[in-house]
Design brief:
The complex is a heterodimer of chains A (246) and B (77).
Chain A (H helix, E strand, L loop, with lengths): L7 E4 L5 H12 L3 E6 L2 H8 L7 E4 L5 H14 L6 E4 L14 H29 L2 E6 L3 H4 L5 H21 L4 E8 L5 H4 L3 H8 L10 H12 L10 E4 L7
Helix pairs in contact in A: 1-9, 3-4, 4-6
Chain B lengths: L2 H14 L20 H15 L5 H5 L4 H10 L2
Classes of the chains: A alpha/beta (246), B mainly alpha (77).
């Protein structure tokens, strides 16, 4: 089950914490990857840890012209096809709404939401021709619940969910599914830096009593990318240890 | 029928899965051939690829019948 042998995938933000776990999960299931990120060295170092003939593509998702080139570059690097698109890259520019600058709003929307739309639009073309595709966007629990200080981030993540539902309806008849995975608190360099009191405060909000791992997100993405998930579309899979049940 | 017309017709038959005799020049993609808006997008993509032309969105919107497609492609070649 969930075998991705022979399938190709573009993953954005691939060298980050969750991104690398997603890439690792897809590669482990047999997919060949185009790994995109903003840091060439980090990408190359990470790519070397994966099995398979994977490619790396440096792309600044804040640059619309570069974003428009990314899918064509990936299709070329992957031998002419793209079966799976994972919109994982995201940034935060946290601030209370009353103090939030236009730039902070714009940057987050541009990278988290607009770039994802551009990539979906570009990937839909070859996927429609192939009558097969899997588009998976990494949103967040805060896109559904909100979070103080993250009006921009929460809007971008909620936007991904709405966009995915619209695309899911447009593309369902062509064998393309469009879904989201919404992580809760996932262990990262940032959460490792928290002290015991802070960690305990977070854990107390999570019925599972602990933070999630990147691999929990990777597994959810691998499932949605699989042929077996072909009847699942327009959905958001929440992976959060029960901290929000929506 | 011109060469363009033959090639257009072939693409329409393949993409919409309709019988060749239904694909007359006057046939409307949506009303007569059962295409939906996504089919039109796909047909335009297929025409662009087959004929090496670019069909901008405003021109694509005006393509309602098989003849509209043939005329547009001929005008670009």
């Amino acid at each position: 089950m969930f075998d991705l042998t022979g399938m190709t995938a573009l993953v954005t933000g691939a060298s980050g914490g969750i991104g690398s776990a997603i890439a690792g999960a897809l590669a482990a299931q047999g997919a060949t990857l185009a790994l995109s990120g903003s840091n060439a060295d980090k990408l190359a170092t990470f790519a070397a840890t994966l099995s398979g003939d994977n490619k790396t593509i440096v792309c600044d998702l804040a640059d619309p012209a570069a974003v428009d080139q990314l899918v064509p570059q990936a299709v070329e690097a992957l031998g002419g096809r793209i079966d799976i698109l994972v919109n994982n890259a995201g940034v935060t520019r946290d601030n209370l709404a009353m103090r939030m600058k236009d730039e902070e709003w714009d940057q987050v929307i541009r990278i988290n939401l607009e770039a994802a739309f551009r990539l979906c639009r570009a990937a839909a073309k070859p996927m429609m021709k192939a009558r097969f595709g899997r588009i998976i966007s990494i949103t967040s629990v805060v896109g559904v619940t909100g979070n103080p200080g993250q009006a921009n981030y929460a809007a971008s993540k909620a936007g991904l969910i709405g966009m995915s539902k619209a695309l899911a309806q447009e593309l369902a008849s062509r064998g393309i599914t469009v879904n989201c995975v919404a992580p809760g608190f996932i262990r990262s360099a940032m959460t490792d830096a928290l002290n015991d009191t802070q960690t305990a405060a977070i854990n107390s909000r999570i019925p599972a009593g602990q933070l999630g791992e990147g691999s929990d997100i990777g597994a959810a993405v691998a499932y949605l990318a699989s042929r077996e998930a072909g009847y699942v579309t327009g959905q958001t899979l929440h992976v959060n240890g029960g901290m929000a049940m929506i | 029928m011109s060469e363009t017309a033959d090639r257009v017709k072939k693409i329409v038959v393949e993409h919409l899965g309709v019988e060749a005799e239904k694909v007359t020049e006057d046939a409307s993609f949506i009303d007569d051939l059962g295409a939906d808006s996504l089919d039109i997008v796909e047909l335009v993509m297929a025409f662009e690829e087959e004929f090496g032309v670019e069909i901008p969105d405003d021109a694509a919107e005006k393509i309602g019948t098989v003849k509209d497609a043939i005329d547009f492609i001929d005008s670009k070649q």
